[in-house]
Amino acid sequence: MTRPARIGMIVPSSNTCLEPQTGRILEGREDVTVHSTRIEVTRIALDAGANTQFDQRTMVDAARLLRTAEVDVVAWNGTAGSWLGPDHDREMVRQITDATGVPATTSTLAYLDAFERFGLERVGLVTPYTGDVNRAVVAAWAREGIEVVAERHLGLHVNEEFARVAPGELVPLSLEVAAADGVQALVYLCTNLYGAPVVEEVEAAASLPVLDSVAVTLWRCLDMVGAPLLDERWGSLLALTRRRSPAAR
């Protein structure tokens, strides 16, 4: 009997969104299962103390635990690489695969793969973060050829609080960002933010694709293991028929 594909996810310890939201997106599918391990993450900021939460050795140790479950892919399901710089995550992925033999990705690299796959170069950004974190994201993405045309942030830094933001609170901010000239898609950046529940509503109101971090990370994992992708209500782009996957970045 062929077993389901197994997705291993490294989860920030204070994240209360991504696991339940991933389950809702999968809706009882039997072709794939998701297995998580946690690392300590409590605060999002740009100081050295906050950044050490994302030490690559910590990620490798977490990936080794997931490897014992015979997972087919490992994802660091956090967006820190978007302000630390994607090269941080590229090196992390390399180290994880070298140590475990398992293909790997991250939320940040999944976004870059989505931008490339769907030809996106100018996006709008909505996050729960503080302004300085958003500015660091804008600068890091610019180095990858992605222009953030407009952004909004909620000014929060305690990770556990991000998931307390009601999805409906994101809609007005989203429509403001989507109205900026040149925006090709709207991005909810944070795997502890409930953006996915309003993707369908915002796409209809703004006539733009919307990409949510939880959905994008899951999409890339499904893509990497060759499983069917997502229902279009979780993001119209993420439901498109699979094309050849770009190599893990």
Description:
- The chain is α/β, with parallel strands linked by helices and 249 residues long.
- The chain folds into two domains: 5-110 and 214-231, Rossmann fold, CATH 3.40.50; 114-211, Rossmann fold, CATH 3.40.50.
- 41% of the residues lie in helices and 17% in strands.
- The protein contains eleven helices and eight strands.
- A four-stranded parallel β-sheet has the order 2-1-3-4, sandwiched between helices. Strands 6-5-7-8 form a four-stranded parallel β-sheet, with helices on both faces.
- Helix 10 (199-206) links the parallel strand 7 (185-188) and strand 8 (210-212).
- The model is unreliable at 243-249 (pLDDT under 50).
Layout of SSEs?
Blueprint: E1 5-12, H1 18-26, E2 32-39, H2 48-51, H3 56-67, E3 73-76, H4 81-84, H5 86-100, E4 104-106, H6 107-117, E5 122-127, H7 131-143, E6 147-153, H8 159-162, H9 170-178, E7 185-188, H10 199-206, E8 210-212, H11 213-225
Parallel strand pairs: 1-2, 1-3, 3-4, 5-6, 5-7, 7-8
Helix pairs in contact: 3-5, 6-11, 9-10
